[in-house]
Model the fold of this input.
Amino acid sequence: ESQLNPNYSFVNFVEGDSNRLARSAGMAVANKPGGTSFNPLLIYGGVGLGKTHLAHAIGVDIKDKYPDKTVLYISSEKFTQQFIDSVKSNTRNDFIHFYQMIDVLIIDDVQFLSGKAGTQDVFFHIFNHLHQNGKQVILTSDKAPVDMQDIEQRLLSRFKWGLSAELQAPDYETRISILENKLFRDGVEMPEEIIEYIAQNIKSNVRELEGVIISMIAQASFNRREFSIELAKQIVDKFVKNTKKEVSIDYIQKEVSKYFDMDVATLQSKTRKRHIVQARQLAMYFAKRLTKTSLASIGNQIGQRDHATVLHACKTVDNLSETDKQFRKYVDDLTKKLTF
Ligand code: ADP
Ligand code: MG
Done:
């Protein structure tokens, strides 16, 4: 049993700027498992950005092209549990042997191996055996190897041998495509303006984009309601509320400063240096977005500015994040840091 989910295919995995590298690396691996320099292929990124989907898609495609190859998908929690069980029942060698026989091993969410020395040790040996024998290893994680904690150095260095490819939060165009693709697969038509409304308001999680569509369809059919902006707004608000954890303005200032490698005093200072102004504007923008604080109070707390300055900052950030790719990355990275 490969444990692969055939619904998670490449065909269903909408391509966009945010996932192009990871997606094409996945396809390259699927064409020649074990035969590329992408070994291991490590796919990393935040919650709900498609790591599990892409990992399955690679496995499904390999099974299609190479029916004789043994492909196994497993979560790292399950892997850990199996290992612990094998130790208890004195079948550790069987466990190792089983994994060493696999042609394509896919382990999801390897960040859960952190702190588990025994499991890391056994995985290290399995990994080496597979790698030496030209077998393919595919891993996913919520972080890049450099940012992983409590994972043994020798294992981290193995993770870096191949390719680490990031799945980023989808840009607006990709969000639209994902929504349209989902609607198409469900055989549902929805007015363009509603699709745009959803894409404008759910920005950092594909699972939530799909969740809104699922709720919309359920609500509309259950209550015989039309698809309307009002309905979309209700549902989007619920999603946004559920996922938003309250953050303080202090916390936002600290995180934004840290991200730009400056201290909070610098962020708040009167300087007009561009990168400091931008950091300050981002802090204001996130304070507006993630807290219920008034503009006046935000200005007061972030370097004694007035409410018009805060308003201007929010507009600037909105504009720049639509037009400037680098700036958009700042917004996306910080959104991840502040909301996950
Ligand atoms: P992760 O493992 O990173 O938390 P998942 O792989 O579980 O995320 O993805 C969450 C949901 O979003 C899944 O239903 C998946 O099919 C969908 N999804 C993610 N990325 C895409 C994409 N590029 N195209 C289509 N669906 C996607
Ligand atoms: Mg996952």
